[in-house]
Amino acid sequence: MSLKRVLSGIQPTSDSFHLGNYVGALRQWVALQEGHDAYYCIVDLHALTMETDPALMRKRTLASAAQLIALGIDPNRSTLFVQSQVAQHNQLGWIMECITGFGEASRMTQFKDKSSKNGSDSTKVGLFTYPMLQAADILLYQADLVPVGEDQRQHIELTRDLATRFNSRYGQTFQIPEGFILKAGAKINDIQEPTAKMSKSSGTSNGVIELMDTPESNTKKIKSAVTDTGREVRFDEKEKPGISNLLTIHSALSGQTISSIEKDFDGKGYGDFKSAVAEVVVEYLRPIRTRALELLEDESHLITLLSQGAAKARVVAAQTLDETYKNLGLVQ
Ligand code: TRP
């Protein structure tokens, strides 16, 4: 029996992943290594759709790789690689652009949101074709499952449409992938603005818990997290969004159920509760951060691991691209 194939990608757009990335997605990447053939891609080409600084790009790509390994992506089990090292992504991306309607691409809500925020002059064409490159990332590996957050649902739908369209016009070429949409219990909010998703781009810096931040700084942030009126530690997203978010964080990392945490803090105040959450988070993240820092100390080893991943990825990608070109009638 062959294992189902999983593929996902993450942009190297920050020095550190945050707790929302981890609980919402990356932890599932780790779990899916079990029983699946997993491909995980640091999508640096996608990151170029926003203006980038070369030194930061390099630093963040390596930092992303180090953190992924530190949090449990095992480069011996999974194929962990950098998108720009596998040229087939761009090559298949072009083919995808050639079968996507202009109107179809114009309906992508992420493009619409980002381009309306930035205005058409600073919106890059690459942002418009971003979903077609993403489709190529997925289809090159004949992925069965694509674990992503809710915000990627439309891109996965487009990928499925493009694969179906290509297969029916040019013959069976691509596996039709399923989105594996991560949700419920996995949604971590900003700890300063607990009704908004934890996010580097929209959040407050004090509201985002970073994997690479020092234990002292994360402790301080959690102790100054926004709480709600009243003094009961109780899960109630409407009346108590702050406390509910902290309960979700505690439960996600400690593995304790929300109701048992509520019980532990029965009769105690918010202060005690926040200290406990800080301890759970800091102790959970400590070994991850330590391991990532160790990996970053030996950059050449890290680069070797990534180039081994790219070599493995290239074998599969080249096979799919050959088949695609052949089915299109391109003379090779
Ligand atoms: N667009 C995805 C995001 O912003 C990142 C991504 C690029 C991706 N290529 C992918 C995710 C392929 C899954 C599969 O989160």
Automatic annotation (TrEMBL):
<keyword id="KW-0547">Nucleotide-binding</keyword>
<dbReference type="GO" id="GO:0006436">
    <property type="term" value="P:tryptophanyl-tRNA aminoacylation"/>
</dbReference>
<dbReference type="InterPro" id="IPR002306">
    <property type="entry name" value="Trp-tRNA-ligase"/>
</dbReference>
<comment type="similarity">
    <text>Belongs to the class-I aminoacyl-tRNA synthetase family.</text>
</comment>
<dbReference type="GO" id="GO:0005829">
    <property type="term" value="C:cytosol"/>
</dbReference>
<keyword id="KW-0436">Ligase</keyword>
<keyword id="KW-0648">Protein biosynthesis</keyword>
<keyword id="KW-0030">Aminoacyl-tRNA synthetase</keyword>
<dbReference type="Pfam" id="PF00579">
    <property type="entry name" value="tRNA-synt_1b"/>
</dbReference>
<dbReference type="InterPro" id="IPR050203">
    <property type="entry name" value="Trp-tRNA_synthetase"/>
</dbReference>
<protein>
    <recommendedName>
        <fullName>tryptophan--tRNA ligase</fullName>
        <ecNumber>6.1.1.2</ecNumber>
    </recommendedName>
</protein>
<keyword id="KW-0067">ATP-binding</keyword>
<dbReference type="GO" id="GO:0005524">
    <property type="term" value="F:ATP binding"/>
</dbReference>
<dbReference type="InterPro" id="IPR024109">
    <property type="entry name" value="Trp-tRNA-ligase_bac-type"/>
</dbReference>
<dbReference type="GO" id="GO:0005739">
    <property type="term" value="C:mitochondrion"/>
</dbReference>
<dbReference type="InterPro" id="IPR014729">
    <property type="entry name" value="Rossmann-like_a/b/a_fold"/>
</dbReference>
<dbReference type="InterPro" id="IPR002305">
    <property type="entry name" value="aa-tRNA-synth_Ic"/>
</dbReference>
<dbReference type="GO" id="GO:0004830">
    <property type="term" value="F:tryptophan-tRNA ligase activity"/>
</dbReference>
<dbReference type="InterPro" id="IPR001412">
    <property type="entry name" value="aa-tRNA-synth_I_CS"/>
</dbReference>
